[in-house]
Amino acid sequence: MTAALVDAHAHLARGLCAAGLVPTDAVERGFLTAHRELWWRYDRALDEAALRASVRLAVADALLAGTTGAVDHHESPSCIEGSLDVVADACQELGLRAVLCYAVTERNGGRDEARRGLEENARFLASNDRRLVRGVLGVHASYTVSDETLREIGDVARDLDTVVHVAAAADSADVADARVRGFDGPLQRLLELGALPEGSVVAHAVGLGEREVRLANEHGLWLVQCPRSNARGRSGYPAALHLARRAALGTDGIGGDLVAEAAQLAADAPGREPDPEGCTARLDGGAAILAERFGGAARTPAAELAIGSLRVDGCEVVAAGRLVAADGDAIRAEAEVQAGRVLARMERG
Ligand SMILES: [Zn+2]
């Protein structure tokens, strides 16, 4: 049996973008341009209705692509409180196993925004009892949070006995920021401030060298490569990742198709990896992350994947190529309506 396909770094809230309903051309204009002109504006434009429609579309697309689980990195600065319940309800209803977090940041509203994000994580961790969903803590990226916020996140993670999901070294800008703040790099900063307990998930990791990957190994961290996102954003290749003991593949919100992600890795690996075929084993990492978070409370997230049929946790979630729990056409129609509203709000900034 092949391992279940699990997206180790998802952005389910970007389902409208992945489906082409919100244009993402800015991605080709570099990391900071893409973030300031596209992703940050898009995130701010999400209200509860748009978030729900976007996540439902992303979950539907993932399941129909044979993906059974996701480790999600979520932000919706205009509706922080309760947002993880919106994401969790969509996953539970449609049948996607998920590890959720709110990605804490200070980039829109300073320390107050960070506090609200951290409270949403803690609230969700304490209240969620959905069978298919678990919570962890989230940080957007080292360069959008202060030392004080990172220390607080570490304290809460230890109190709640959980891990942290963060983007790090996705671009040289993140590395330069950490150095200006007096650290060797973003990974060292996150570790020195206590924000990465063992088992934490560090996504992107393009700018991590051999020294940093060894450091990640010493601390039991997962490193998640996002091959399609890196290729599209021309953000480079994580050449030291072959040293990682715990490595996985994520879509970075490009769409829930892990087979396409593995194909991109297979195309990029020759000449960059010492073992171009062996590195595709990273595809199994996502399922291992889910197994760690679900522990004994749920079976290993293995799926029976047959033509047009998908089972998650013993339940059929796709049958004859269609979702079991909801009408895929209605999900798409609602997403189109919400995309129009989101685009109008993005125009206004
Ligand atoms: Zn990401």
CATH superfamily: Metal-dependent hydrolases
Low-confidence parts? 297-303
Total domain modules:
1
Which class best fits the helix and strand makeup?
alpha/beta
Beta-strand residue fraction:
15-25%
Strand order of the largest sheet: 4-6-7-8-9-10
Radius of gyration of CA atoms, rounded to a whole number: 18 Å
What is the CATH C level class, in words?
Alpha Beta
**What oligomeric state is this?**
single chain
Topology summary:
Elements (H helix, E strand, L loop, with lengths): L4 E6 L4 H4 L12 H15 L2 H17 L2 E6 L10 H12 L2 E4 L2 E2 L5 H18 L5 E3 L1 E5 L5 H14 L3 E5 L3 H9 L5 H7 L8 E4 L5 H9 L3 E4 L1 H7 L13 E3 L8 H11 L16 H10 L10 E2 L2 E4 L2 E5 L2 E2 L4 H20 L2
Parallel strand pairs: 1-2, 2-3, 3-5, 4-6, 6-7, 7-8, 8-9, 9-10
Antiparallel strand pairs: 11-12, 12-13, 13-14
Helix pairs in contact: 2-13, 3-4, 3-13, 5-6
Zinc ion binds next to loops.
Can you tell me about this structure?
With 349 residues, this protein is α/β, with parallel strands linked by helices. The protein has a single domain, classed as TIM Barrel. The protein is 44% helix and 16% strand. It is built from 13 helices and 14 strands. The chain has a 6-stranded parallel sheet, with helices on both faces. The chain has a 4-stranded parallel sheet with strand order 1-2-3-5, with helices on both faces. The chain has a 4-stranded antiparallel sheet with strand order 11-12-13-14, covered by helices on one side. Helix 6 links the parallel strand 6 and strand 7. Helix 2 crosses helix 13 and helix 3 packs parallel to helix 4. The longest helix is centred in the C-terminal third of the chain and has 20 residues. It is globular, with a radius of gyration of 18 Å. The N and C termini lie far apart (48 Å). About 2% of the residues have low confidence. Zinc ion (ZN) binds next to loops.
